[in-house]
Amino acid sequence: MDGPTLVTGATGTLGRPLVDRLLAEGTAVRVMSRRPRRADDDRPYAWAVCDLASGEGLRAAVEGAATIVHCATNARNDVATTRRLVDAARRAGGPHLVYISIVGVDRVPFFYYEAKLAAERLVEESGLPWTILRATQFHDLVATMTLAQRRLPVALVPAGLRFQPVEVTEVAGRLAELARDAPAGRVPDMGGPEVRDARDLAASALRAAGRRRRIVPVRLPGKAYRAYRAGGHLAPGRTVGTVTFEEYLERRAKAGRL
Ligand SMILES: NC(=O)c1ccc[n+]([C@@H]2O[C@H](COP(=O)([O-])OP(=O)(O)OC[C@H]3O[C@@H](n4cnc5c(N)ncnc54)[C@H](OP(=O)(O)O)[C@@H]3O)[C@@H](O)[C@H]2O)c1
């Protein structure tokens, strides 16, 4: 099928570098967003205003797309929005649907992960040609967990948790490759280069931001947290990303974004 690659969630943390990568490779890109295109945006992509929650604009957004990379997410309705996208894609002739999911969605009983797992099932059973990549947490998310606590005199971290953060531009690169390739089903997970203690990561983020705070580990109740503590969200055998958390922080600091 000829036609552009539609990127849902194209304005998000992952979508932005993905669009950059696709454009750099010469792929025709159609961006999906709920917002209208800014008047000063002259980048070489098409823009489709669409709200996956209501379905408004969806038919035009998917029309003629050869591939759809589904990065849009919203904690409240990922299953319904993915179902709507799948139905529209089927009616539009069956493009290749590439879905980004999270390592451990089948191991950690956290409501957001349960929705991602249900969305994976929808993609797998859609009848469309499909590819699913699961990634670990992006560096941005792990850094934000600490740096967003601006007003607290201490930095709270989840006790006993480890993370394996991955550089989002590397995930975007892998997705671009998957979007270009033939549908591959569920591909091997993508994790960052290091598994590190949450406390240690928080200390690095605070240091990079020049903030002095006492780090206070907090033990949370519940089965989701237990599964996180057991490392259900980690992929230690899949240290595919190469950019470390320290390198990410250094780049952000240099760009004045800490
Ligand atoms: N963050 C992580 O650490 C991580 C790790 C592994 C996998 N993932 C997965 O990667 C994907 C992208 O995550 P992200 O961190 O880049 O998300 P994000 O920054 O929160 O971006 C979410 C995007 O979804 C779009 N969106 C939300 N509701 C929508 C709706 N009703 N209709 C159309 N578009 C809608 C938003 O676009 P507009 O506001 O422009 O409409 C926005 O571009 C998600 O599926 C997430 O589960 C994330």
Brief account:
This protein has helices at residues 15-24, 58-62, 78-91, 111-124, 139-147, 168-180, 198-208, 223-229, 245-254, and strands at 5-8, 29-33, 46-49, 67-70, 96-102, 130-135, 154-158, 162-163, 185-186, 196-197, 214-218. With 258 residues, it is of the alpha/beta class. NADP nicotinamide-adenine-dinucleotide phosphate is lined by residues 8-9, 11-15, 32-35, 50-53, 71-74, 81, 100, 102, 116, 135, 137-138, 141.
Question: Could you characterize what this model shows?
Answer:
By secondary structure, this protein is α/β, with parallel strands linked by helices. It has a domain at 5-136 and 168-186: NAD(P)-binding Rossmann-like Domain (Rossmann fold, 3-Layer(aba) Sandwich), CATH 3.40.50.720. Helices cover 36% and strands 18% of the residues. It contains 9 helices and 11 strands. The chain has helices spanning 15-24, 58-62, 78-91, 111-124, 139-147, 168-180, 198-208, 223-229, 245-254; strands at 5-8, 29-33, 46-49, 67-70, 96-102, 130-135, 154-158, 162-163, 185-186, 196-197, 214-218. The strands form 3 sheets. A 7-stranded parallel β-sheet has the order 3-2-1-4-5-6-9, with helices on both faces. It is globular, with a radius of gyration of 19 Å. The termini are far apart. The mean pLDDT is 97. Residues 8-9, 11-15, 32-35, 50-53, 71-74, 81, 100, 102, 116, 135, 137-138, 141 line the site of NADP nicotinamide-adenine-dinucleotide phosphate (NAP). This is NAD(P)H-binding protein. InterPro entries: ComplexI_NDUFA9_subunit, NAD(P)-bd_dom, NAD(P)-bd_dom_sf. Residues 9-140 form the NAD(P)-binding domain.
